[in-house]
Design brief:
The complex is a heterodimer of chains A (461) and B (659). By secondary structure, chain A is of the alpha+beta class. Chain A has twelve helices and 21 strands. Helix content of chain A is 34%, strand content 28%. In chain A, α9 crosses α11. The chains are: A alpha+beta (461), B alpha+beta (659). Chain A: Keywords: Membrane, Transmembrane, Transmembrane helix.
């Protein structure tokens, strides 16, 4: 009898679980279809719909900030994209009334504005007025990165983002800070524990996933949709800049730990070398930027940034990387004009190109050209006396901005992989003797240059 | 064995028979039964797993859709639990106060808020002020009333404390020797029965509310001159009042919010916390026309002297042309009270973990502050460097605005300083006059960014070198022959009496009589003539017109300079080579100006005023201006007094005014 009961129980259980499963499946399907439907309806709305709420909120916000004399400018990528199409017309008739609401009426959750920190005192009065006008607001503060590199300074936390919400629309105000290296920086948006995660759909924000670095924009006062706003003078270049604005802070904490382990070289020689390397890097950056050639910190200079946030005093040269597609024949004359004569040129544009320029007092500037393959990136090396070729392989990377010796420069975003490819897993340990032909962990022997090409591919001055 | 397979499409009415048959079969076939059982269990398990997964999936989907809050946006630190102090609604505080020869302590609700058992210090009356609503310590002071004048400071302090605050007194070692009647009466008015009769080496503790009840008092008389009274321990209870009663009712403004926060935390700042008619904390001085230093950052270097900082910031914020947004106060150490002062004025403050000790600590603090200043204001070409024990002249920024272009254009300049080392009441006269000097006076000065970034910062003395930063900056390796511009009448006034290299005597001797400009909007004279070459022309012109004084007289005598006004006189002293300052030091001594090391010289020439006449001193033959000496005049030589003990210590105190 017991055995029967057991079986019955089992069967019953199976049955209920089956029913349960079916119910779950049904529910899931129902839920999914509802969600998709919602997404579709939103898309539809944004294509044809008009949303005067947004326009009113933006107008109120502009009124609020102008009453407190705060100069903000529009950086909303969606609006700037639209504005860019009509930029000629907008520029030519800055005051004309617009027949239809073209830019500020597409229903969106946000409109994004920028604020330059030094143009405003962060007065509390603004928020009181905002509250009186019906805005809810949220302030996102965090550590001041300008003091991050310094030992033992506990700075005040600085506001990085403000969000003003009224009805269904929110204004995202990104605070930009000026930093050493003559550029603007905005911080990441990170919510603290006590903050309201549902205040706005944070994930949809255009700014704040990462910190960003920008040039100081020239501004233009325009009137769009009968609202007077400042916009970047050249919206398309701003949008271009925005697409690769991601900024990496130097790893100051790790650098401090490094110096605890390996005290910094404070000798006069080291001080002198750092000073020269810094000025050489500044000169190189100026020259390449003028030519519009994108470059990044490579090899030892990149390691110095990543490991110790400074120039490695025993490295003896400055290393830069450039994609071969960005190569310009003007590079050599431009450097010569800047007072940096060509020291040697190895390889050719098609293969393993490398340029070296002679800086002040034996400090050398090396520019390595990088060749992109399907699954990796490489640059070449050449031994002058034997004509031997070497190849250094790197995993693919993208470029991020960073600040180094008071300069805004690129580094590979995936810096760790880049440094590890080059220096192996022990990159944290300083090595004084380095042989570029055998020490790197990513070096490959790559044959020998044909003797008849030597005159072209091995040029030493 | 006949196989019977259940038909899946079987009709319901046949179900029972099917089931029975199946059951029957199973009963007979153990193996099959086992198999079915396992199958069922497995099926169960699978459904449970699928169920859980589905639940999780749907929940996540729902979460994403509804919340949209992304993990990318969560602060790394968000999971750190903030320890919350339990809000105590306690209305009564237990207070313990101990007084003895070698130790004093005060404990409030079991927490020690004062403990001093150090030898050879902390003598006198310790005073603690508690907030009557929260019980927080608002001020802690010790007045060494064994020494003169300290009782006056105590009276001043007690008068500043707001009514209603709880005051705790305790004596360590000796506190009555210079406790005058005025002070005793103040203590009596607070409710102390014993205070009027306090005498030599008595021990005493007292807890009372200002202008209110007495919570307890204990006293132990010293039995004999050579012995101390027995240690006294006072245990008492203090009843707290409500927060509303403890606060003033100022109008609801942003400024008063700051004031309220400040006044509920600290005491001893006088009328800033007065309920009726509090002193302003915003000054709105006149802006300067064409202010060239409006965007120059101002770094205020501070330690833990909050009362000094308060006085300093008041004068700074009252100076015409000040831009509060450019001011950053750098506090050496995690002291709360200086930060409270900074916040009271709505300025930004940065705390710095002390590195190293003594002079090196100051020097590291300077370095961190300067680096931070240029990081925070990356497009600044200069920084104004101030210290917390300076009064700032009303025309400080006007003075800098008129002269800063020189620092930008003239490579031979090292700094602009608001301080004239030799500008005493009796030796400075003309607020519109500027000098070039080979020394770096500090005490309110402007630093060029390129000088700091390219030269000073990389070589700055490391923490293990116990150097004074200013002495280091004056070294020829750093200064490289460059000069500083200073005014005749200083634009800053050094009021600090306590400090690393400072004491009351030293201050009285060298700083108290320093002249300080109080005239607004002084138009500086001949700023262009301060450039390197123009200055030489100017000096030659000046020497050309100067009357040579009678060298047969004693230069220390007042009659050495005739009783005239606005004339230019010159005297020649002996100076064998560039570093021979024997006669100058003696002259400086008798003129009662800075004589601890050589300051204020320019190529062997000193410029000051005597009896309202411009008074030039030329060192012959080292100075290039020696050629102006008439051949008939013999340079004055003054012998240094026979070997003095103190002479060796001179370099050690030379930089004393800096801290």
């Amino acid at each position: 009898m017991q055995k029967i009961n057991k079986n019955v129980v089992l069967a019953l259980l199976s049955l209920t679980s089956l029913v349960f499963l079916l119910f779950q499946l049904y529910y899931y399907k129902f839920y999914l279809s509802q969600k998709n439907g919602a997404v579709f309806s939103k898309v539809r709305g944004s294509q044809s719909g008009q949303d005067s709420t947004r326009w009113h909120v933006v107008r109120k916000f502009l009124g609020l900030i102008s009453s407190h004399n705060i100069p903000v400018y529009l950086i909303d990528p969606l609006i700037l994209g639209l504005v860019d199409k009509d930029i000629e017309q907008i520029r030519s008739s800055p005051d004309g009334p617009s027949p239809e609401c073209k830019y500020f009426c597409a229903p969106r959750d946000f409109t994004t504005f920028a604020l330059l920190d030094k143009t405003w005192k962060h007065e509390v009065g603004l928020f009181r007025t905002a509250e009186k006008m019906g805005f809810q607001w949220l302030k996102i503060i965090n550590k001041d990165p300008r003091l991050d590199g310094m030992d033992d300074l506990s700075g005040i936390e600085i506001p990085l983002h403000y969000i003003f919400k009224l009805a269904s629309h929110a204004i995202h105000l990104v605070v930009f800070y000026e930093r050493s290296g003559n550029y603007l920086w905005h911080g990441p948006l990170r919510l603290k524990q006590h903050m309201d995660r549902k205040f706005v759909p944070f994930r949809k924000l255009h700014f704040g996933r990462y910190p960003g670095a920008y040039e100081k924009p020239e501004l233009l006062l325009v009137s769009i949709d009968d609202l007077k706003v400042q916009i970047p003078k050249n919206p398309s270049s701003f949008l271009e800049e925005m697409s690769h604005s991601r900024f990496l802070e130097c790893r100051y904490r790790e650098a401090r730990a490094f110096f605890q382990l390996y005290p910094d070289d404070a000798s006069l020689d080291a001080v002198e070398f750092r000073k020269k390397a810094k000025s050489l890097l500044h000169l190189a950056a100026l020259t390449l930027n003028n030519l519009g050639v994108k470059f990044w910190l490579s090899s030892g200079t990149c390691l110095g940034w990543y490991r110790q946030c400074n120039v490695i005093p025993h490295s003896k040269d400055v290393d830069l990387g450039v994609f071969i597609r960005d190569y310009k024949a003007d590079i050599i004359p431009a450097f010569q004009k800047a007072g940096l004569p060509l020291k040697h040129k190895f390889g050719k544009v098609e293969d393993s190109l490398e340029l070296s320029f002679q800086g002040e007092d034996d400090v050398k500037l090396d520019i390595f050209f990088f060749y992109e393959e399907v699954d990796h990136i490489w640059n070449g090396g050449t031994q002058a006396k034997s004509g031997k070729k070497f190849k250094y392989l790197f995993p693919k990377f993208t470029l991020c901005w960073t600040e180094f010796v008071e300069l805004k420069v690129h580094v590979p975003c995936e810096t760790l992989q880049y440094v590890e490819a080059n220096y192996g897993p022990d990159w944290k340990v300083p090595v004084k003797t380095w042989d570029w032909k055998s020490s790197p962990s990513n070096v490959q022997y790559n044959g020998v240059w044909p003797v008849d090409e030597w005159d072209d591919v091995i040029q030493i001055y | 064995m006949d196989e019977w397979k259940p038909n899946p499409a079987v009709k319901p009415h046949k179900k029972r028979s099917w089931y029975l048959a199946w059951k029957y079969k199973l009963m007979n076939q153990r193996a099959l039964r086992k198999l079915c059982q396992t199958g069922a269990v497995l099926f169960l398990l699978v459904t449970v797993i699928v169920n859980i997964k589905l639940i999780l999936d749907t929940r996540r989907a729902a979460y994403e859709e509804e919340e949209e809050s992304a993990q990318d946006y969560d602060d790394e630190m968000m999971n750190v639990e903030v320890p919350r102090r339990p809000v105590s609604n306690k209305k009564v505080l237990d207070v313990e106060v101990y007084s003895s020869r070698s130790k004093v302590y005060v404990a409030v609700d079991g927490t020690t808020v004062l403990e001093d058992e150090a030898r050879e210090q902390g003598r006198g009356i310790h005073v603690i002020v508690l907030n009557q609503a929260t019980g927080h310590v608002m001020a802690k002071r010790v007045f060494d009333t064994y020494s003169p004048h300290e009782d006056e400071a105590m009276v001043l302090f007690l008068n500043m404390v707001a009514r209603g605050r709880i005051l705790i007194f305790t004596i360590k070692d000796e506190g009555s020797f210079h406790l005058k009647d005025t002070a005793k009466n103040v203590l009596k008015s607070l409710g102390s029965q014993v205070a009027p009769f306090l005498s030599w080496r008595d021990m005493w503790t007292f807890v009372g509310k200002k202008g209110g009840e007495v919570y307890g008092e204990k006293h132990a008389k010293s039995p004999a001159l050579s012995t101390w009274g027995d240690p006294v321990l006072l245990k008492t209870e203090v009843h707290l009042t409500s927060v509303e009663d403890a606060e003033c009712h100022w109008p609801d403004t942003e400024l008063n919010h700051r004031r309220k926060r400040f006044c509920s935390k600290v005491e001893g700042y006088g009328s800033v916390c007065s309920c009726k008619d509090p002193t302003p904390i915003e000054f709105n001085p006149d802006p300067l026309k064409d202010n060239k230093v409006f965007n120059v950052p101002v770094a205020v270097i501070a330690g833990n002297r909050p009362n000094y900082l308060y006085r300093m910031l008041r004068s700074l914020l009252s100076a015409q042309g000040v831009n509060p947004q450019m001011i950053t106060v750098f506090i050496d150490g995690y002291y709360e009270e200086p930060m409270d002062v900074v916040e009271l004025f709505g300025l930004s403050g940065i705390q710095h973990t002390p590195i190293s000790i003594k002079n090196a600590r100051v020097s590291q603090h300077y370095k961190a502050s300067l680096t931070a200043t240029f990081n925070l204001f990356p497009d600044a070409k200069f920084a104004v460097v101030l210290e917390e024990d300076l009064d700032i002249s009303v025309d400080f920024f006007s003075f800098l605005s008129q002269s800063i272009h020189l620092l930008e254009e003239d490579e031979s300049l090292y700094c602009i300083s608001a301080w004239n080392d030799q500008g005493y009441e009796h030796t400075a006269e003309d607020p519109s006059l500027l000098y070039r000097v080979e020394t770096m006076p500090g005490l309110g000065w402007v630093l060029r960014k390129s000088l700091y970034k390219d030269e000073l910062e990389p070589k700055w003395p490391t923490p293990e070198k116990l150097w004074d930063w200013d002495m280091w900056m004056r070294m020829p390796e750093q200064r490289k022959g460059r000069e500083c511009i200073i005014p005749d009448i200083s634009r800053s006034y050094h009021f600090g009496i306590v400090g690393l290299n400072m004491n009351g005597y030293f201050h009285e001797a060298y700083f108290k009589k320093h002249k300080f400009n109080t005239v607004p909007n002084v138009q500086l004279k001949n700023v262009e003539s301060l450039r390197k070459d123009a200055y030489e022309t100017e000096i030659h012109r000046l020497l050309g017109e100067a009357e040579v004084l009678d060298h047969s007289k004693n230069p220390c005598e007042d009659s050495f300079v005739p009783d005239t006004e606005s004339r230019v006189y010159v005297m020649f002293i002996r100076m064998e080579q560039e570093a021979d300052f024997t006669t100058w030091t003696q002259l400086a001594k008798c003129l009662h100006i800075w004589d601890l090391d050589v300051r204020g010289n320019h190529k062997g020439l000193w410029r000051l005023f005597r009896k309202k006449n411009h008074f030039l001193v030329v060192g012959v033959p080292a100075s290039p201006y020696s050629s102006k000496k008439p051949s008939s005049v013999t340079p004055i030589y003054m012998e240094p007094p026979a070997k003095e003990e103190g002479a060796v210590a001179v370099p050690a105190v030379a930089a004393a005014e800096q801290t």
